[in-house]
């Protein structure tokens, strides 16, 4: 009994949700363990092409997928990172080479010098593509703020 004569409530799983036998529980634990192991192996097997490229004043994160020309360069919107663009990048990579990157201060990219404006973002994108040895021609795709940046490019 707890304080004031109340019964103490036992914390944990409700007994009606637990499997009845120990053997069943062991099988379920083994099954979930195998699922987690397979998921980890699948992630390890996929080669990541994320890189940090030094453009002089700071380093920017870039992700490359696919082969071919023209190279599609995608610039994300305000407060978005290249992770949000991965599904689009994977689909386009079946046709041509696709580049996504994180602007200064986003994702793993280092903060860049101030002030930050579209002119500076365009200069940094040009430097990034040059330092990463990504040849022209480019098809520039921008979402939201990224659209303004690629227009200045």
Write a structural description.
This protein has helices at residues 22-45, 86-92, 118-131, 145-152; strands at residues 50-54, 59-65, 71-75, 98-102, 138-142. The chain is extended and about 75 Å long. The longest helix has 24 residues, at 22-45. A 5-stranded mixed beta sheet has the order 1-2-4-3-5. It has 153 residues and is an alpha/beta fold. Strand 3 (71-75), helix 2 (86-92) and strand 4 form a beta-alpha-beta unit.
Compact description:
The chain contains four helices and five strands. It is of the alpha/beta class and 153 residues long.
Number of strands: 5
Describe the main β-sheet briefly: 5 strands, mixed
CA-based gyration radius? 25 Å
Distance between the termini: 73 Å
Can you count the helices?
Answer: 4
- Flag low-confidence runs: 38-48
CA-based shape: extended
Helical residue percent band: 25-40%
How are strands sequenced across the largest beta sheet?
Answer: 1-2-4-3-5
**Average predicted confidence as pLDDT:** 82
Structural class: alpha/beta
Beta-strand level of the residues, as a percent range?
15-25%
